[in-house]
Amino acid sequence: MPIYEYRCQECRERFEVLHLSPVEGEVECPSCHRQNARRVMSSFACTGVSAPSAGHSCSGGCSGGSCSSCSH
User: Fold this and answer.
1) Which domain holds residue 32?
2) CA distance to 2, 7, 9, 19, 38, per residue, from 24 (Å)
3) How far apart are CA 20 and CA 16, in angstroms?
4) Whether the predicted model's global pTM rises above the 0.85 cut
5) pLDDT value at position 13?
6) Mind listing the pLDDT tens digit for each residue in 33-48?
7) Strand order in the sheet with 3-8
8) Residue 32 domain-assigned (yes or no)
9) C-alpha distance from residue 51 to each of 37, 47, 67, 70 (Å)
10) Structural domain count of the chain
11) What CA–CA distance (Å, rounded) separates 32 from 42?
12) Is residue 29 included in any domain, yes or no?
């Protein structure tokens, strides 16, 4: 489930909500408890995937050793 960032239109509090899809205007602000929040653009972090070493059989999507067949 993605995390969406919101800003309350009443008190201007910024907060995050974890849910399946964005719901504008129906998200309750944790500070003032009003349901007048708008989703805002937020930055995201990504991690680089390095090339697999010689003889390595996984596709590189194993996050550096989390798959059972990975040896790097």
Assistant:
1) 3-39
2) 15, 10, 11, 12, 6
3) 13
4) no
5) 96
6) 999 899 898 776 666 6
7) 14-18, 3-8, 37-39
8) yes
9) 42, 13, 15, 13
10) 1
11) 22
12) yes
Beta strands in 1-72 (DSSP E): 3-8, 14-18, 37-39
Read off the DSSP letter of residue 65: T
pLDDT at 27: 87
Specify the amino acid at residue 33. Answer: H
DSSP annotation of 35: S
CA distance 6 to 39: 4
Amino acid at 62: C
What per-residue confidence (pLDDT) applies to 53?
54
Residue 21 domain flag:
yes
Say which amino acid occupies 50.
S
What are the residue ranges in the chain where pLDDT is below 50? 72
- Those residues whose C-beta lies under 8 Å from the C-beta of residue 66, and which sit 6 or more positions away, are none
Instruction: Scan for tokens 């003889």, then name that residue.
Output: 55
In-domain check, residue 67: no
